[in-house]
């Protein structure tokens, strides 16, 4: 499979749209995980898609302080404003650790534009208001849940039935388990959270779509887990 087709779009939607949709409660329009982890998942989806489409390459530096880096090796624009902004931010200061690249992308606040895109597609509705007339609040309840339901069924088939994951499904699974949101996205499976996460980690480790995709998923998952863990630690220490 060519690298550029490693994580194909579904109905023109990028992976970040799917992960944000899955992490947003249909009724309340609010995130099922805390806002920081939601934003990490969206940024992780973009980093993973950049790597899987050949814009970012996973490399291992040599020497005493050897480490894994992500480097922009193809700056060709996608013609997609969200992905193109992520690509520009990822390569702004040269190669860096996956965690550092993730943070560069997250600082662009792509979550806001992805929500706007889902509203434009007629999938979500934007509800903006103020608490006590002062503090702004936003919610994004579902209008059309058909695509999300199909995506959930696919993840259920992979994690519960045992079907081999597509590259896109493997990326989604890695992101969701990385921000500890998988059990919330797939309730009622009959599996414990521990078993569900264990299966998810095996799926993320599968060689789906070739070596380039596997490395991209691994690097993205490691960065998401590190950032999510740090965010949780910061919240609990406060």
TrEMBL record:
Membrane topology value: Peripheral membrane protein
GO molecular function per UniProt: phosphatidylinositol-4-phosphate binding
Ribosomal protein among keywords: no
Domain of life, per lineage: Bacteria
Cited InterPro entries: GPP34-like (IPR008628), GPP34-like_sf (IPR038261)
Keywords: Golgi apparatus, Lipid-binding, Membrane
GO cellular component: cytoplasm; endomembrane system
Cellular compartments annotated: Golgi apparatus membrane
Main localisation: Golgi
Protein name: Golgi phosphoprotein 3
Species lineage: Bacteria, Bacillati, Actinomycetota, Actinomycetes, Micrococcales
